[in-house]
Sequence to fold (600 residues):
Amino acid sequence: MKINELNFMIGGKSGEGIEVPGNMFAQICMHAGLYLHVTQEFYSVIKGYNNINQIRASEKPVRSHSNHYDLVLAIDDETVPRYLDDIVPGGGLIYDPALVTDEAVKQSQVQSGGAPIYDKEELKKKLEAADIKRFPVPLAALAKEKAGFALAKNIVGIGATMGLLDYEIQPLLDLIVKTFARKGDEIVNKNIDAAQAGYNYVREHFAREFNYQLRPVKDSAKKFFVNGNEAIVFGAIKAGCKFVSEYPMTPSSSVLHAMAKHSHQYDISVNHVEDELAAINMAVGAGYAGVRSLAGTSGGGFALMTEAIGMAGMIEAPVVIVEAQRPGPSTGLPTRSGQGDLRTAMHASQGEFPRIVMSPGTHEESFYMSFEAFNLAERYQCPVILLTEKYLAEGHATVPFLNTDHLVVDRGKLLKEEEITEEFKRYQVTEDGIPPRTIPGQKGGAHTATTYEHLESGYFTEEVEDVNKMFERRMKKMKTIEANMPAAQLEGDEDAEITIVCWGATYMPASEAVDLLARDGIKANLLHIKYMLPLQPGVREILENSKHPVIIEANYTAQLAGVIAEKVGIDIQDKILDYSGRPFTPDQIYRAIKGLKNKN
Fold:
């Protein structure tokens, strides 16, 4: 019997409601004291195609998802043929036997664009032959009987799941009340009846036939449940962000939603604007006016922002841009995950100017690096681009309560009125490249902020000596930034035979892959690069001492590998790349590295 160690998946069509029962299950596990990692894979259509919600629960911290499932709840007719082979031996499948029909064959053919995955008879044979526990439950019939509508089969299914895992049903019923209260008592009661029906059916027909159970954990550590975008928002709020402008774009939209939710409590101006051009121009204007500001977007929206990012670079206005990556080009895979925008962020806009590009790898880092992004933007008076990706941005995890005692707001060289002298020059040449800064309305701090090249005063110039002096002064900031940037750290045994190099959310599965390799006697350590521009100091030294570096990236051209080769002269030969839009799994990385070892 496995207690409190479960990789659970719900599959259903768009519009059938897999998110609601998935969230309920996750909340129950969290309140039971378990650690969670939750991710969703869904098509960019409103209705019809198969989506999945993956929920991994454990008494120990979990850092990634897995595509090997202990239990699958199939709400539609396509989840079974698509994911039957991914259920582990001895795992379980809850499904509606009425859905193992010809319709499943048709749908699999539509989505694959070719031959169906299975024919009906073959599917039935595979079901019977699979080394799994089968739990046929009349989900749709029970939903119609108890709730009066077939759509409630998702609630029947989650009730059946709780019964199968031998967990009390009351926490689920409480969540149903909370979730559907705004729809009135009738809807609440119908969903309660649906959940109870699924629970009772499994307890009656399959009592204690499944070797997985959930139990509340006593004295568990305090933690909260958050997605990456929400963690970025919390970090921004802690940093004193007071202005947000965004045109919604998957997977960054929840930055706007979460900010709006907390805007009244923290006195934040949150603006759902008409397009990305408005979003970035408003955020740059707010930063210039002295307000800590944020603009959120994804790759396509970021492309529209590039000219205004150059404006921020020229007038040296601090602004933070959250760019939640998804695969391109163009619309690409709008609901999937990727890391194809690194070079875009590093080189966005015409000309050359200082900027910082950074990327968190976990939900905790999303909070801390978001806070730091606002300090960096004001300290160095430049745009800071915080790169995340769908896997982290929309993926949820349990996070321990965060320590914020060490966090200090640093507004850089922003002058108080009494510090402004008659000799004040907004773009004064300084040793570190960073000029003194004032904001509109401060006595003695008047200056011109123009997008043209300018003198120290801000007035326009095209004279060679002045142009060179100003350009060199601005670019000197990059040396100052690099000199004060935290050095890259190697995680694990310095003498390991494999060094996994990664950035962004690939850190989560890569860190678990290290554990999987260790079980096979393969020592691996991990170099997680968090700052790409300027590249973190220490990368060269770590890689020069590595026996066998392997880089992991969710793009086609190994963009970080190219940056490393350009900046420190080390060409990492072995690359594990995935550009499918699906996030890496620990097992995928583990198998790829094993293959490299066998090849060499």
